[in-house]
Specification:
The complex is a heterodimer of chains A (about 55) and B (about 280).
Chain A (H helix, E strand, L loop, with lengths): L1 E3 L6 E3 L9 E3 L6 E7 L3 E5 L10
Antiparallel strand pairs in A: 1-2, 3-4, 4-5
Chain B lengths: L5 E7 L4 H10 L4 E7 L15 E5 L3 H13 L4 E2 L2 H8 L1 H10 L7 E4 L2 H10 L5 E4 L10 E3 L2 H14 L7 E5 L6 E8 L2 E9 L12 E4 L4 H14 L3 E9 L2 E8 L5 H7 L3 H12 L2
Parallel strand pairs in B: 1-2, 1-3, 3-4
Antiparallel strand pairs in B: 5-8, 6-7, 6-8, 9-10, 9-12, 10-11, 12-13
Helix pairs in contact in B: 1-9, 2-3, 3-4
Classes of the chains: A mainly beta (about 55), B alpha+beta (about 280).
The structure holds adenosine-5'-diphosphate (ADP), magnesium ion (MG) and zinc ion.
Adenosine-5'-diphosphate binds next to strand 6 and strand 13 of chain B.
Chain lengths: ~55, ~280
Amino acid sequence: MKANCPICDTSLKLSADLIESEVFECVDCHRKIVVKSIGKKIELEEAPGVEEDWGE
Amino acid sequence: MGKNKKNICLLHNTIRGDEKLLIEAAKKFAVNLDVVDVTDLILRTKGQFKFDVILDRCLSSTKGIHAGLFFEGIGIPFVNTVKVAQICEDKFATSMKLTEYKVPTVSFAMVFNVDQAKIAIEEMGGYPIVIKPTVGSWGRLVNKINDLDALEAILEHKDTFAGPIHKSFYLQKYIEKPGRDIRVHNINGQVIAAIYRKSDHWITNTARGAQPLPCRIDQDLENIAKLTGKAIGAGILGIDVFETKDGYLVNEVNHKLEFKNVQRVTSIDVASKIIKYCLTCAL
Ligand SMILES: Nc1ncnc2c1ncn2[C@@H]1O[C@H](COP(=O)(O)OP(=O)(O)O)[C@@H](O)[C@H]1O
Ligand SMILES: [Mg+2]
Ligand SMILES: [Zn+2]
């Protein structure tokens, strides 16, 4: 699977087991990217920043 | 959906390594696992939900608790229960439960202004002390205060710039640790795995770069983890423990385990144990 980073536009080779809502780091700009949807076309977005109530 | 298979809902707002381990583990059981983003839901009592149990993996504690209030209210078991989540979410609530059940824990105080803070710190044996938000995680805003100047600075900043939650000052005695603390997992009363979290920094969250290492569960650790489970209630618990010369002390209890490091360094299949526990809670 291939898609471009929504931030730095680098062409990314995505692993085949990627699923919706999964977060990964762009190899180039190192920003966190979230998979919005996987269909015919993969939609990626910058992942939201950490909120105060996030965590364990 | 299979006929006799239980429907487990994995409720999340982001899929991390931990959730992927849960999705993999569920394949080993005769279950249907629905992976649902909490932000896609409309929590309305007229809604139709066909889940037998819900596993709360929401990164957002607030959204998780709201979802829990809803699903428990319409009769669908929610793991962890809202009761457990509300105790763990708030470090002061946790401290009070641990106190009630006489679980050895770090000496603490709650104060609402700087003058009371000074008195409490004196009573607790002086500096350094640790201040931390009652709600929060990953070591964020966990601060060590070494003297009165720092105390006044931090409290003034919180009073001036922070939200109301941060104006309840939760203080703890600073505990000298041997370069690490312990994370021990208690699932439904069973103490199943533990790791050391080793760091050069006094804050030893793995989210902050501490190194996870396997930890043998000795009798005292098992006992304090079991007692903690009794205090908090049955569920999936991640207990932070300090080693001191006078024995173990519980620091805090987490209700949404990030277990991937534990699973990796101990080879214990925590994900499967979580799925199994959900099945025991299912309708
Ligand atoms: N009272 C304390 N004394 C010594 N170290 C502490 C104390 N409180 C917290 N820490 C360190 O900071 C880390 C994070 O604090 P913790 O209370 O677990 O909050 P969080 O919810 O952010 O994990 C702990 O794992 C521990 O290493
Ligand atoms: Mg902690
Ligand atoms: Zn990029």
